[in-house]
Amino acid sequence: MKTQSKIRSITQSGFALFMALLAFVQVQAQTVPAQNITLKDAVNYALQNKADAAKAKLDVQNSEYQIEEVRSQALPTISIDGSVTYNPILQLNALPGDFFGAPGTTILAPLGQKWNSVAGVTLTQKLFDQSVFTGLKAARTTREFYQVNAQLTEEQVIERVATAYYQVYIQKQNLGVLDSTYANTLEVRNIIKGQFDNGLARKIDLDRMNVNLNNISSQRQKVLNAVQQQENALKFYMGMPIETPIVLPDTEFEIATLASSNVPDATTRTEYLVLKKQEELYLFDKKAKQAAYYPTLSLTAGYNYIGQGPELPWFAKPSDGVYWSDYSTIGLNLHIPVFTGFGTRAKVRQADIQLKKTEQDIKDTKLALDLEYKNAVTQIDNSLTTIENQKENVKLAQEVMDNTQNNYQQGLAPLTDLLDAENSLIEAQNNYNAAMLDYKLAEVQLIKAKGELQTLKN
After folding, report:
1. What is the DSSP secondary structure assignment for residue 333, as one 8-state letter?
2. Of 62, 195, 254, 275, which sits with the fewest C-beta atoms within 10 Å of its C-beta?
3. Residue 128 pairs with which residues in a beta bridge?
4. Beta bridge partners of 207
């Protein structure tokens, strides 16, 4: 009897501790108002706060600066340069003595001055450079590439958020199943305890119910941890602070009939458009490398002011032996490549290989997108069938549970049958929830396959 009393005391203490913890969690949750988050709210929050989406927008902004960089190559460049030079030892030049009145001799004479200072302005303008023209044509494609890539990033964020959102809901549904089961089991256990106290039930039946309660409590704790982890994952994908409490409304998970018409045009999918823009950029890259075969022509003009003398020319005068003069130059520079050791040809062929690889990626991506749609439609159809079956199975399991519980209370069924019916009901409800999750995940994939993920934010 002492052992039995000890078991009863431990069970009651465990239950009391569980209820106290539950009450504490509820009080804590009430201190910070929970945000009611719909799927639309979650998606829009993620697009505003998630780092991936923000970085994609910055890439679009940065593309404008990249375009400006390319355009700058077609504009003139102007620079101001200055220098000062001191020559400790002047170079001696061998000059005919005729210049110095000594014919037939050679005289070593220094040329230049100890100090030289030059300041000038130089202008350079490219008149013909095929690589610059190609870069200007590629500028618009560069902007379009980053815009399409930003849209792809948005869709990836939406897909991750929607998937995590539904996973949180299903885990909460599983938690609700265990809460309901715990409440029902506790009611039966209290009935058995009352019968035991009146000598109408066996001690072993009461102990088995207490053990079952503890098992359900342990399962609930595991699911509760899973809910918390899934919520944290959802908040991470949203870019939301992890400590923010959230609530998901049940209305988000109604079964909707999605039209599965003909296979959508994969060439309109963002994944496909990104590769096509990338292909255009690789084509321009190839043309830019081919531009090395073309001659280049540029204009240069300069104006300079030079000071020379035996001392630092700055602020010095002719009376100090320092003289200042100006000079100007205008010129055309023509560069004609003749032979580069086959380096240019190798670069062009490498670019061509990259272009061909991208063409293969485009073909493979189109097939993958078509397959994605077909698989999503198949999964939707299978999930709908499974949901109907599992819904009927839950109904039957509930009827078996109610009948068995009634029979047990009337002494017409053993406790084993009651526990088995309870486990079967839990399994049926969990299977139904799993079927719902499969359906919602397939729904996301079907929306994605149809290129309509953006509609989830509207």
Report:
1. E
2. 254
3. 297
4. none
Residue type, 413: A
Residue 92 phi, psi dihedral angles, 5° rounding: -90, 135
Query: Which of 250, 252, 235, 232 lies closest to 173, judged by CA?
Result: 250
The helix-helix angle for 270-290 and 343-409 (nearest 10°) equals: 170
The residues that bridge with 86 in the sheet, in sequence order, are: 115
Question: What pTM does this model have?
Answer: 0.77
Angle between helices 2-31 and 203-238 (to 10 degrees): 20
- Tens digits of per-residue pLDDT, 309-365? 999 999 888 888 899 999 999 999 999 999 888 999 999 999 999 999 999 999 999
Q: How far apart are CA 168 and CA 230, in angstroms?
A: 5
Q: Mutual orientation of helices 203-238 and 130-197 as an angle, nearest 10°?
A: 160
Amino acid 166 reads Y
> What phi, psi does 182 have (nearest 5°)?
-60, -45
Residue pLDDT, tens place only, 100-117: 778 888 888 888 889 999
pLDDT tens digit sequence for 395-424:
999 999 999 988 887 888 888 898 899 999
Residue in 260, 292, 271 with CA at minimum distance from that of residue 446: 260
Indicate left, alpha or beta for 441 from its phi (over 0: left) and psi (-120 to 50: alpha): alpha
Helices (H), 198-328: 203-238, 270-290
Within 10 A of 227 (CB to CB), how many other CB atoms are there? 19
- pLDDT one-digit tens code per residue, 159-200: 999 999 999 989 998 998 999 889 988 988 898 888 888 887
- Cβ–Cβ contacts within 10 Å for residue 182, how many? 18
Please say whether the beta carbons of 399 and 426 come within 8 A. no
Report how far residue 76's alpha carbon sits from residue 435's, in angstroms, rounded to the nearest whole number. 67
* Contact predicate 408/184, CB 8 Å: no
Task: For residue 82, give the H/E element and its range.
Answer: strand 77-86
Which amino acid type is present at position 255?
I
Which tokens in the block code for residue 86?
A: 């001191």
Q: Which tokens is 372 given?
A: 């994605």
Q: How far is CA 352 from CA 133, 184, 284, 327, 423, in A?
A: 20, 71, 11, 49, 64
